[in-house]
User: What shape does this take?
Amino acid sequence: MNNSQNQLSTAITSLRFPLIFFVIMLHCYSVVYLEGVHPLYFGGIYPFALWLGETGVPGFLFISGYLFFLSKKTYVRKLQARFHSLFIPYILWNALLLTAYLVAYTAGHPQDINGKNMADFNWMDYLRLFWDRGSFDNGNFVPLLCPYWYIRNLLILSLFSPLIFLVVRYLRELFILATAIWWILTPHNAFIPQSILFFSLGAYFSIHDKNPLTLFKRYQTILIGSCILLACADIITHTLFPTIINLQIHRLALIANIPALFILANHFTSQGALSPITSYLSNAAFIVFSIHYPIVVVLRKCSIQYFANANDYLHLLLYFGCIVIATLLSLLFYQLLPNRIKNILSGNRS
Assistant: This one.
């Protein structure tokens, strides 16, 4: 492995936990919304919950696409690897959460999932929990463990990787641009175009034998400048001066965040090997991603329920407090798991 490739590998490893942390910041806002109009609260959390928070999954999709096509394994061998690293954890974590629902239900606590009580579930409803919880939602559907829509979409993209290879190989930048426009113009969450765009963008660099970090560093002044300008535009238009193209500005800002993150990761890791803390957090990232959501749901429901009449300043503190507590509890869960269980639940990442 040459030096530039080694720098890229180190940057990717160092980004794994920060990207998970961004997802936690997003979910500490989005799992339970604060009712009413709270401009100070929303303005204070927007840069963390949405500008950074919504960068997490695109960042992982970019890395996943790059690494998938960087591998020289055959298509069948790659699918076998994803079966162990993605599919098995996907089934296990959703099954664990379903078990928790069933325990609560049998203990006499009614459980509604996507507006339907478990008392009315048939076998098909239980199966759908592993796919879309009973609602396709125009492609923005999620399984029972909501953040795992990313894992599910990644598995689907892996299955269709020969087609992605062909379009990225021969249509090159035209396909990336067309998919970016599709995502930018699609309302709501747009999980499908987002998944295809960032996975294909990462794949572009591998398929055309380009090192993304080398390219990002070559144009780092322009890329960092664009990131800062779009970040300012995104935050200002969402908190102070709304426009009819808020969503489009936001998504352009998310695209600009990807190269900026790689440049920053390289800057902080270029002095030497990864620190023990960074390596530990990278190993913990998958399990933290998997366990944080139910923890966040409980924390946010309690904080909003018990402090319903609090002012915006207190709700800001509660938001950041939930981020810290959810992260620490998720890391504690990872630390307490036996190594054998860690390996199973993380797809042998620990």
Notes: The longest helix spans residues 75-106. Strands lie at 112-113, 116-117. The radius of gyration is 20 Å. The longest strand covers residues 112-113.
